[in-house]
Amino acid sequence: MRNISTKLIPSLVWIYTILFTIIWCIVVLMIIQNPIPKSEAFFIHNIKRLELFTGQLNPKTVSIAILGDSRSRYALVPDEILSEQISTRTRKDVRVLSLNNNWAVYSDFEDLLPNLVRSNLNVIVIQEELFAKERASPANFLQWRSYLIWLLFGTGEWNPGDVDQHLLQKERRCSVLRENETIEERKQRIKLWMRFEPQGPNATKLTERRKSLIGNGLKVPILRIPVSSAARSELPGFRFKHDTPIMAYPGVIKDNDYCDTVHMNPTGRQIYSKWFVDQIATVLLEVQP
């Protein structure tokens, strides 16, 4: 019996190794095919911002929310300045609340939208790419791994990447970006973080959500953020069909008005923000607080 047991040990080791490998492959496949749990820290921080924002509104205030990724944050001046500029342009009391997330996809904002609607906002501006971006499989895997580690050893709110949520909504410095990043390097980072699926889950959900918001009387313009000439020709992207109204800058932001290939520097930001103020002023002609 002892000899038979000894002979069986290598076989059992192989069997268990194969079983473990199969189970691990299944787990990895499930992870990369499913989105990571949403950031609790991002949601809680922005709910607090929304509560503070709505608490400062009066019955005559026109309120605007802007949803986008880091490119929309770098493209527009801070909310306080933007609010003042739009108020001056329209002669209305206008307040702006920007909600941004780095490498954002629609699902980042999905749980916030019902709260935005209940806050009786007048306008919700949505960055165009949110209608097509999905989190890429490599990013899903890396963040799932971080999430599992957080479940076992973490404390506090789930916060992918341990992001400073307060700074995230305000950061516009070129120095924190990869200013010397080449187009090829940018392509590789895009592959890591996102993929474009115009018919994907986020596209379907956000399109339906936008219809619902418009049905509830909100103005929901779609905003196109320009990029440098190199990024326009080389990087993957998404554009709506021509029959869909888009707020699109009619000219060209010069390449030297970007920090890198896609994020505007202070000069580009001033140019784009001035145009945005004029565009949103037209939208607000039909808005009564």
Secondary-structure map with pairings?
Elements: H1 2-33, H2 40-55, E1 62-68, H3 70-75, H4 79-90, E2 94-100, H5 113-118, E3 123-127, E4 133-135, H6 137-153, H7 165-168, H8 183-193, E5 194-196, H9 201-215, E6 222-224, H10 229-234, E7 247-248, H11 266-284
Parallel strand pairs: 1-2, 1-3, 3-6, 6-7
Antiparallel strand pairs: 4-5
Organism: Kiloniella antarctica
Keywords: Membrane, Transmembrane, Transmembrane helix
Protein name: SGNH/GDSL hydrolase family protein
Describe the protein.
There is one protein chain. With 289 residues, the chain is α/β, with parallel strands linked by helices. The protein has helices at residues 2-33, 40-55, 70-75, 79-90, 113-118, 137-153, 165-168, 183-193, 201-215, 229-234, 266-284, and strands at residues 62-68, 94-100, 123-127, 133-135, 194-196, 222-224, 247-248. The protein has 2 domains: 1-33; 37-284, Rossmann fold (3-Layer(aba) Sandwich), CATH 3.40.50. The chain has 11 helices and 7 strands. The strands form 2 sheets. It has a 5-stranded parallel sheet with strand order 2-1-3-6-7, with helices on both faces. Strands 4-5 form a two-stranded antiparallel sheet. Helix 10 (229-234) links the parallel strand 6 (222-224) and strand 7. The model has no long low-confidence stretch (mean pLDDT 88).
Percentage of residues in DSSP E strands: 5-15%
Give the tally of structural domains: 2
CATH architecture of the largest domain: 3-Layer(aba) Sandwich
**What's the gyration radius in Å?**
23 Å
Rough shape? globular
Report the sheet with the most strands, covering strand number, pairing sense and barrel closure: 5 strands, parallel
Structure annotation, total helices: 11
Mean pLDDT level: 88
Q: Name the CATH class of the largest domain.
A: Alpha Beta
- Structural class by sheet pairing and helices: alpha/beta
Helices and strands, in order, run as HHEHHEHEEHHHEHEHEH
Q: Roughly how much helix do the residues carry, as a percent range?
A: 40-55%
Distance between the termini: 87 Å
Would you report the number of β strands? 7
Main-sheet strand order equals: 2-1-3-6-7
pLDDT < 50 stretches: none
Enter the CATH topology name of the largest domain.
Rossmann fold
